[in-house]
Amino acid sequence: MKQFVFIAAFFCTALNFAQISMYKHDMTPILNGQVVAFNTTTFPDNELDFYIKNNSASSVSVKVSCVSLLNNDGTGFELCFGPECLSFVEEGTSYPTNPVVIAANGTNGNFDHFLNTNASAGVFPRDYNFRFYQVGNPSGNTIDFTYRYDPGLSVHDIEQLQTYGVIIKSTQVVDALELDVLKSTNLELYDLNGKIVKDKIKLYYGVQTLDVSNLSSGTYIINFISDDGNSSKVKFNKK
Q: Where does the Secretion system C-terminal sorting domain start and stop, copy by copy (predicted)?
């Protein structure tokens, strides 16, 4: 319980330090670097409603940039922010034309959202990478996040992505852990006695394999540590 309180306190402090922060409409935070995954193009299950919160004592002007697109050209992707609602996005373009002014300790409007309607066949996943930034304040924090569409994702896969930013192909392992990494993170492995068996392995975007053939049979704990210090744990069984 003490560890949970510490993590929660750290998490809240990190959000409060940021001049702007991002939330879903149910007030679940969307952290910098997070992947939000969807396996459908059917409304409303494909919609990501969001708030940008201004945590400062003065107003801020905010835009969102489409940083990059993976396996898509932005067609059929709807972005509504401030007065503009677009039916496609372009890589390298910022929206809206005039920045959204968010009052001190306030948020943007209730109708801003992202959603993908492009269900055409092709290569998956389809990633839409965005960055919220402050106009006229180069020292202000930014928020990067990815909207991912992949019809092959199961509900379990989506839950793993939201929690760890990593899909673990199987928690029943013989020689290797197969990982699909959605955002850069660090990994540690512990046995059930708390002994570190693999220390601070850096994971980068993409499919990766971690050799565990030298480990004895048993249950181990993976500790994922994000670049901003947040951590999540999951168990796997080595046969």
A: 182-233
> What's the predicted TM-score (pTM) here?
0.74
Count of structural domains within the chain: 2
pLDDT tens by residue, 3-17: 333 333 334 444 445
The residue from 103, 118, 149 where one domain ends is 149
- d(CA 60, CA 33) in angstroms, rounded, equals 21
Any domain includes 57? yes
Radius of gyration of the chain (CA): 19
Q: What Å distances lie between residue 233 and 80, 155, 165, 169, 220, CA to CA?
A: 35, 19, 12, 15, 10
Q: Tell me the per-residue pLDDT of 54-107, one tens digit each, with 9 for 90 and over.
A: 999 999 999 999 999 999 999 999 999 999 999 999 999 999 999 999 999 999
